[in-house]
Structure formats: structure tokens, C-alpha cells
Design brief:
This protein is an alpha+beta fold. 57% of the residues lie in helices and 17% in strands.
Length: 345
């Protein structure tokens, strides 16, 4: 029995196509397995990076870098973070993980940490007289820049401000409304950062909480209160119109956490809440010699209003300046002036 040539050609071609299909399927399965394996590895590495101990190292490193401590003081925490990226770079170097996959997953993290840790890496290389130290971390950064250039058209190089903001986020600082359990932390910060000769009665804190329950905010890192801002809104009737005047009574940050943008963040958040409530203007009284607070307020759009002479019965207090920020352009000047007079009394 003879088989038609056309039929034989058909089945032969089908068999070849089937073989190619099988090979493609095997290739696809291998590729999927490699990507799954790479993804699983990155998940494990991400868990290690976000572990409690590594989080503490990252937070400590961020604080030291932002406060510009000497590079040799970074050793304790920097080595753990740098070693993490060195091991990740080794995996990419050995082609166990595609660099494109790493770029998609943790590229931004690599950019920022390489820029932040460069002084430490250079310090270690010079100390050991060995340029190979953290070589894979260096390669990892460069390979991420190459991929980034292909994807974006130009490499993503974080500015100094970007790196500082990134490190500040690494501190794991949360901002929330005050609760009664925070009273000890608020009193502690008040004593150590504002007026060592004064005390802040708990009754005053309770009053502030009642006056402005959602405008009394704290900054918290883990279980520690590291900053707070007290504010409230007063209603002032002028003629037929009632105006809302916001007042910030106190803003303070733990001395150990200054320079990290915490005060700025607290101020921005409370101003956003004042705006949400429809306040017309915000006023704050600040000691004239407090240059840091003055700059913070000026940068936020406040302007100097007038100087307040503190009564001689309180010689330990310095001369203060009243500053104001318009939340709405239609506010009549006399409303704030009356509040200023009452506050200064």
C-alpha cells in the first residue's frame, strides 16, 4: 500500500512542527523556572532586608548619614547594609539573576544606597588598600544605570536631596494624632529641646488635645515619640462674619533626631489639616533667637508680624516674634491683630 506524497509531507511537517513546539515549550518552562527562582530569591532577600535587625541597621545608618557623622562611625551598621548589596551584586555577576529583573524590583533602592554609601566604600578601600572591596556592589550600581538608561533614555542619578529624603523614609518614622499614652514622650521632648527651666503640665497637654484633637500630632519611630506639634483653631467673629484662626503653640523635635526633616513634616501636616478645616490664617509665636524655627517657618510661607515684649517678671524668657501665614487672601487684618494682642498678653 502506497502513501500519497502529499499525505506523507503533511505528517512529516506536523512532526517537525511538533518537535519545535516541544522544544519551545521546554525553553519556556526553563525560562519561567529561572524567573520564578529569581523572583523567589529576591523575595527572600527582600525579607532579609526588611527584617527587624536589618531595619535597625538601616535606620541607624540613615540617622548617621543625615547628621553627617564621621565615616568611621558608620562601620557598625554600614557594613551590614553594604554586604547585602554586595551579595546581590554577586548573584547578578554570576548571571543567576537577570539584571533587568533586579532593576524592576529594587533598582531605586540600589541607586540611593550606592550614592549614600560611597564615602564608606571609599573609606574601606583606602583603609585596606584594596579597590576590590565591594566590587560587586559597584558593578551592581553600574549595571542598574545601564538598564535604566535603556528603559528611560538616561540613567537615574539621585540628587543629594533625593538621597536625604530617601534616608529619612528609611528611619521608619510615622506621623499620627496624639493619644494620651504619648504624654511621657511629649513631656520628655519638651524638657530636653525647648525650655529646660520650665515644665509642661499634663493638664496643658490634655487641654491642647481637647482644643485640637486632630491638630496635635506626634512623630513616632518604633515605640518612641521623637517630635510633636500642638495646634488648635479659634473662631473669631468680626461683624457678620466668623473667621477661623489657627494657632501653633509648640513644635519640638528630639535633639537626637534633628536635621532629618521631622519638624518640617509635622508643620506641613498640621497646616494641611488647618487648610482642610477652612482656616483663614495661621499664627505662631517663636523666640527671636531660635534661628532654626524662624527658618522653618519662613520656608513654609510664614512672615514676621511683630515683636512681642515679654514682661520683666519673666526674665528667663527671651523676646518673641509673632509670625503669620495666610491660608486665605480675604482675611481682614484686624482679626489676627486681636488674636496676637491676646496671645502676647
Amino acid at each position: 500500500m502506497s502513501i500519497p506524497v502529499d499525505t506523507l509531507t503533511f505528517w512529516t511537517g506536523l512532526g517537525a512542527a511538533g518537535s519545535l513546539g516541544a522544544l519551545w515549550l521546554i525553553y519556556y518552562q526553563i525560562r519561567t523556572a529561572r524567573r520564578t527562582s529569581a523572583y523567589s530569591f529576591l523575595l527572600r532577600e527582600n525579607e532579609r532586608f526588611r527584617s527587624h535587625r536589618m531595619t535597625q541597621y538601616r535606620a541607624e545608618l540613615a540617622q548617621l548619614l543625615i547628621t553627617k557623622r564621621p565615616v568611621h562611625e558608620l562601620e557598625h551598621c554600614a557594613k551590614h547594609v553594604a554586604n547585602y548589596f554586595e551579595s546581590l551584586g554577586l548573584m547578578v555577576h554570576e548571571q543567576l539573576i537577570p539584571k533587568e529583573f533586579v532593576w524592576e524590583s529594587v533598582g531605586i533602592r540600589i541607586f540611593h544606597y550606592w550614592n549614600a554609601l560611597q564615602p564608606y566604600v571609599e573609606y574601606k578601600r583606602q583603609k585596606a588598600d584594596d579597590r576590590r572591596i565591594y566590587e560587586r556592589f559597584d558593578e551592581l550600581y553600574k549595571s542598574m544605570a545601564e538598564v535604566d538608561k535603556l528603559e528611560r533614555g538616561s540613567p537615574h542619578l539621585p540628587s543629594t536631596t533625593d538621597v536625604v529624603d530617601f534616608l529619612a523614609r528609611e528611619l521608619q518614622i510615622k506621623y499620627r494624632e496624639y493619644s494620651p499614652k504619648d504624654v511621657e514622650g511629649v513631656v520628655r521632648i519638651f524638657k530636653c529641646s525647648l525650655r529646660k527651666w520650665e515644665t509642661l503640665p499634663e493638664s496643658e497637654i490634655e487641654k491642647a488635645d481637647l482644643q485640637g484633637p486632630d491638630t496635635f500630632l506626634v512623630a513616632q519611630r518604633f515605640h518612641e515619640i521623637i517630635g510633636f506639634i500642638m495646634g488648635h483653631i479659634e473662631h473669631k467673629r468680626i461683624g457678620e462674619v466668623t473667621h477661623q484662626i489657627a494657632q501653633i503653640t509648640t513644635i519640638a523635635v528630639d535633639p537626637g533626631y534633628r536635621g532629618l526633616g521631622i519638624g518640617k513634616a509635622l508643620l506641613e501636616k498640621v497646616l494641611a489639616r488647618f487648610e482642610y478645616h477652612g482656616t483663614d490664617e495661621c499664627v505662631v509665636r517663636v523666640r527671636k533667637e531660635n534661628d532654626v524655627a524662624m527658618k522653618l517657618l519662613l520656608d513654609a510661607g510664614f512672615r514676621t508680624d511683630l515683636a512681642i515684649k515679654i514682661p520683666s517678671s519673666q526674665p528667663h524668657k527671651a523676646e518673641c516674634v509673632m509670625m503669620r501665614k495666610s491660608m486665605k487672601e480675604t482675611l481682614e487684618e484686624e482679626s489676627v491683630d486681636e488674636l496676637v494682642s491676646r496671645t502676647a498678653a
